[in-house]
Amino acid sequence: FTERHKESVQRQLNMDELKMIILSLLFEAKSGIEITQLLHVRGIRDVVNNEGTVYSILHEQEINGFVIAKWINGVKRYELTKLGKKQLQQDQQVKMTLKERLLGVRMHAE
């Protein structure tokens, strides 16, 4: 792989992880600003001066049917749909399985 290809793959992995983190924050309705602040608190500082990334992801997830947006008291708030909750659960299972494969261990009992 070229260095450029490696960087592209890493960016995609980071974006997929960011999408999963954002979905995980939406079990209760939150505004885009609240989401950005929570990401910053969790150490994801890249989004603080690039809030457009958060809103792009929210819009994409809304189109996919994973998130619903509602205007409440003049503030657009985002929340997971049933489909979004199911998708998040599947994503977390896939992530856990990949970790197990990488580490070569079983991380949970069946």
Mind explaining what this structure looks like?
This protein has 110 residues and is an alpha+beta fold. The chain contains four helices and three strands, in the order H-E-H-H-E-E-H. The protein has a three-stranded antiparallel β-sheet with strand order 1-3-2. A hairpin with a 2-residue loop joins strand 2 and strand 3 (75-80). Helix 2 packs across helix 3 (51-63). The longest helix has 22 residues, at 3-24. The chain is globular, with a radius of gyration of 16 Å. The N and C termini lie far apart (37 Å). The mean pLDDT is 81.
Total of DSSP H or I helical runs spanning 4+ residues: 4
Percent of residues in beta strands? 5-15%
Overall mean pLDDT: 81
- For the terminal residues, how far apart are their CA atoms? 37 Å
Please list the strands of the largest sheet in the order they lie side by side: 1-3-2
What class do helices, strands and sheet pairing give?
alpha+beta
Residue stretches low in confidence (pLDDT < 50, at least 5 long) are none
Approximate helicity band: 55-70%
Indicate the overall shape. Answer: globular
Radius of gyration (CA) equals 16 Å
Q: Find the count of extended strands (DSSP E, 2+ residues).
A: 3
